[in-house]
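Supplementary notes for students who missed Thursday's class. We covered one full example, reproduced here. Read the sequence, then the structure, then the short commentary at the end.
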Amino acid sequence: MNVVLLVALCELVAVAWYFGQRHELFYLRDEALTRGAPSKAPSLTDFRVSPYFGFLRAPGIAVSDFVDPDRLARMASPSARATWADLRTNNYGFVSRHDYPFAVDSEGSFVIAVVGGSVAQWFALQGETELLARLKSSPEFRQRELVVMNLGAGGYKQPQQLLVLAYFLALRQRIDYVVNIDGFNEIALARLNFASGVSSAMPSVQHMAPLARIAGAAGQDGDLERLAELHRVKRTLAKVAADKQRSVLAVGFLAREFQERLLNRRYDELVRSLAEVRSESSLVVLTPAPVRPEADPDGEAVELWEQSSCLIRDTLGARGIGYLHVVQPNQYFSRRKFGADEAKIALNLDSPYRKAIETGYPKLLERIPALRAHGVRVLDATSLFDEAKEPVYSDDCCHYNQRGNDRLAQAIAEAMLSDGRSAEPAQGSGSCTGSRVPAARASR
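Structure (token representation):
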């Protein structure tokens, strides 16, 4: 009788805990959701080394595999469901309906390649419908088959956009117009590179460092042991997560919940223990940042951003391919008055990106006149959301919900159509390779 009473008491405590956490009775939880709940363990990194581009996700990964349901819901807002959540990474690792390169069915087709980081990637997926609808309203595009090609990927920054475009043009991929959406990564991730002692011209150290750790572990016995334990912990986590979802009693669910937390804590400890990049044993080369006492962490990044965009313009212009450079909006460089609910989602005073954007974005904008003077069409979208009344951001980094991507699509379509020469090469005053004072020595 005492054992029965003890089990009953534990079950009551577990039911109360579950209700406090989920605001629903354990026995009435959504069974369909429970049966379909993923039993995934965390990954040291979802990315793989790409020999030309730095890094990309492995082929065949669905968006819903690396974006959690809560974030998907925020990104889809105000829609109820993200229709693009089931798309997968293609043969190269870009999220797309097509493997690359792909054939274009007819001469009447018009391929719009979108390059940049994760904001560009999500725009290619979320903003596609609105962008094409706006373009189709124009006589110029009404009878054409419009195709959006996603060449954006999370963490990409210049010169990765330049390299990606050059690569696929070399493969004879048909591209008629390029939309480059960037700015945030060029400043925020370059600043993190600088803080880690890695050149801002290198790919994002946030994404490359885990790959370097794995490669470096090949020559370190201790690291090999930790990687083996990571694998064991991941397998156990997957089993515990599956058993938790199948629990009939709340006390069983609670027990496995705490077991899962302990395993996650151990996983995090193992990941932190692999935190140092051992360049002497690594297959991944990350060039050190220039050592200058007066170094400006933003100067080199801004210089690289400008030169890369100019080289894209030169490359595309020589082939009659249209080009629009979009400087993306960001909440940390904005006059927008955030509502209380959106502020909780979009603003974070402790964000590792906030200060970099506040100081670095003005330096990007200072270079826009020079870009335009060289024939680069630039859409400064930094104020696009300033007057928006409803929420447009989906997180405290830089990403937009469906409403925000639709507004950006409208602005991009208008810019593409503004001069009626969308597919004609830009005409400027020559190449963008003029020498200037080195960025690290420029006055701040």
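Commentary. Residues 221-245 form the longest helix (25 residues). The chain has two domains: 49-207+288-423, 221-277. If anything here is unclear, bring it to office hours.
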